[in-house]
Amino acid sequence: MAQRAVSVITIPCPFKKRYISHRCSCYRAMFLLACLTLVFNPGMEASVHAAAQPSIKDLLITNTTDRVVVYLRAVDCFTKEMEEAILAGIPATFAFTLEVYQERVAWVDKKISFVEVKHTVKYDSVKKVFFVSFSEEGKEAEQFKDFGKAKSAMSDLSGIAVIPLASLQRDRRYYLRAKVSLDKVRLPMHLENIFFFVKLWDFETPWIRQDFVY
After folding, report:
1. Which string of b and e fits 46-58 if b means at least 16 CB within 10 Å?
2. What is the three-class DSSP state of 7?
3. Around Cβ 28, how many Cβ atoms within 10 Å?
4. pLDDT, tens digit (0-9, with 9 covering 90-100), for 17-59
5. CA atoms within 13 A on the CB side of 140
6. Residue 103: beta bridge partners?
7. Hey, where are the domains in the chain?
8. CA torsion through residues 19, 22, 24, 27, sign
9. b/e sequence 142-161, b meaning 16+ C-beta within 10 Å
10. Cα separation of 123 and 125, whole Å?
């Protein structure tokens, strides 16, 4: 019997004690610098928000022999301030949230799948290498000399399984919702309860929706 495929419906939607001590000093200094920057340059936050807003592009829903998979790309997520923080050794994590809903005519739509994927970048200033780790099962961490390639690895999702085909009913309407946000990063030791990535670096894309039929 021929394999049944997912049909996408295009519907626009608006929707080492010395080492540890040294690192803590660096984090503390950067946090204080960020606070002073906001105090003495209050217009900076406005200029950051005036820049291109983070969003999701190139969303594609398809299927393998047994599951629905998703491809997408997050764009305009890296601000100048975030890049400077990463180059100073602060790790950054992008959290991709993927939800699948079944449309229901006489009732509220039913969420039938939830998947969260995280990508984390950490810069080693000694080796001058960017390490990018992935929460996807079986996907090994990668390292890059080029910051641009590291940012691409952070921003791209490729073939993420969101739901088995066996969980779908034929000729029923479904849709995927997706967004990307900056995961909160806690500072170490006595600063661990202070979030470094406050408003100036924080972001969350709008939800994007794509309908499909199995």
Report:
1. eebeeeeebebee
2. strand
3. 16
4. 333 344 445 545 554 554 444 444 544 444 444 567 899 999 9
5. 2
6. none
7. 7-213
8. negative
9. eebeeeeebbebbbebeebb
10. 6
